[in-house]
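2024-03-11 09:14:02 INFO worker-7 job=invfold-0412 stage=load source=structure_tokens
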């Protein structure tokens, strides 16, 4: 029997590419970059381009593997849980990290670049960007901006998802065809009972409810020097990477800390479905195990933990009474560590999360609006261009008992 090929995980390659572009940007952002700085930045950009080609080849191979699986096992693209839209009755197949939002919608992966589209729209020079020009001109005009074609919109969403910690955690992405998507959930599990002949069946209190995703607008506005856009060899990749990173950062921040008010999604911090465990002191392996035990009690096997860099360092430096580094228990080593820049807490101490995050939902509409202008605001007199992007998304922790927040964590002395 031939072993079925598995998709390639491109997360590390994407992370390395982002780091190279950050390093190049830091060199070029110096007040007076030297010739050595410029040459080093050029080399890093070339390395990033080579990595981008590797990622594209890997993702193309992943698409072929998944397409073959779809033909063999008879399901559409997307291996996440299957949901049903309560209002329309349509089946909605979710996708996991590493799977393409584009392909989940039955679209072909575009060979286009958001950076090329923005540079072309800003300068009017569409040489070597014919596909991008078609995608921009075919999009419907909306208040001076353009609603990108479905293929281009889904590509922008994939760029943001690729850099998002939320996606890497294992959160399930659910495409939203409409502004509101209602899906069924289990509020409490029913109980089964053994019963004898002619005996009345004991009634259980299992209940079902609705989860509602309402797409909220996430906006980005930035400016760039017109001279840079026209002349910098790396303008396309820098602009594309910067926009994707900014969208990913805000998606991550709102997923973790969102209030649920002022047109912002409700994040883990404020979700009633996220449990709490009071550490009330420095973090330790024992505390991590006890927090995970809260989830085990509901037959949930946590597989990831989310923390800031301070707590990541605290856990890595845990030592025994003789000053030797402590190897983590097996149950802790099963928790994949992820970091976010800001994890808010309800007090002055640190907080972190442990859970099985695949039951958390990131709903995203396949609708991206891009506007590029050389006249908006005061950019005309500053010889700049303005870029505005709009995407629509929402978050949902479907049920309680899948995620726990560890609070009251102090730093070791």
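2024-03-11 09:14:09 INFO worker-7 stage=emit residues=413
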């Amino acid at each position: 029997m031939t072993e079925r090929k598995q998709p390639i995980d491109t997360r590390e390659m994407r992370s390395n590419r982002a780091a190279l572009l950050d390093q190049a940007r830091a060199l070029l952002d110096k007040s007076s970059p030297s010739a050595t700085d410029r040459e080093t930045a050029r080399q890093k950009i070339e390395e990033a381009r080579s990595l981008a080609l590797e990622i594209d080849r890997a993702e193309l191979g992943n698409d072929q593997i998944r397409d073959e699986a779809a033909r063999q096992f008879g399901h559409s693209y997307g291996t996440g849980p299957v949901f049903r839209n309560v209002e329309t009755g349509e089946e909605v197949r979710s996708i996991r990290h590493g799977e393409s939002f584009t392909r989940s919608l039955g679209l072909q992966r575009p060979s286009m670049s958001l950076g090329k589209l923005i540079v072309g729209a800003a300068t009017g020079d569409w040489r070597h960007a014919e596909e991008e020009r078609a995608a921009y001109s075919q999009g419907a005009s909306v208040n001076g901006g353009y609603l990108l074609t479905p293929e281009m919109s889904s590509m922008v969403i994939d760029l943001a998802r690729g850099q998002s910690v939320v996606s890497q955690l294992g959160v399930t992405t659910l495409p939203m065809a409409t502004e509101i998507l209602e899906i069924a959930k289990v509020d409490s599990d029913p109980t089964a009972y053994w019963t004898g002949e002619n005996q009345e069946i004991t009634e259980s209190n299992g209940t079902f409810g609705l989860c509602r995703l309402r797409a909220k607008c996430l906006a980005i506005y930035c400016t760039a020097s017109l001279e840079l856009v026209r002349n910098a060899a790396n303008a396309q990749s820098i602009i594309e990477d910067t926009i994707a990173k900014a969208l990913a950062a805000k998606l991550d921040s709102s997923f973790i800390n969102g209030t649920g008010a002022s047109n912002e999604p409700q994040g883990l911090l404020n979700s009633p479905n996220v449990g709490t465990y009071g550490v009330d002191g420095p973090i330790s392996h024992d505390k991590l195990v006890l927090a995970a035990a809260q989830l085990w009690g509901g037959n949930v096997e946590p597989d990831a933990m989310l923390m800031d860099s301070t707590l990541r360092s605290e856990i890595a430096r845990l030592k025994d009474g003789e000053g030797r580094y402590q190897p983590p228990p097996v149950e802790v080593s099963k928790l994949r560590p992820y970091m976010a820049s800001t994890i808010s807490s309800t007090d002055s101490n640190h907080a972190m999360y442990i859970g099985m995050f695949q039951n958390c939902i990131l709903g995203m509409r396949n609708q991206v609006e891009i506007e590029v202008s050389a006249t908006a605001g005061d950019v005309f007199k500053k010889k700049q261009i303005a870029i505005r992007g709009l995407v629509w998304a929402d978050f949902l922790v479907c049920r309680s008992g899948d995620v726990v927040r560890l609070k009251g964590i102090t730093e070791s002395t």
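2024-03-11 09:14:09 INFO worker-7 stage=report msg="DSSP finds twelve helices and 16 strands in the chain."
2024-03-11 09:14:10 INFO worker-7 job finished
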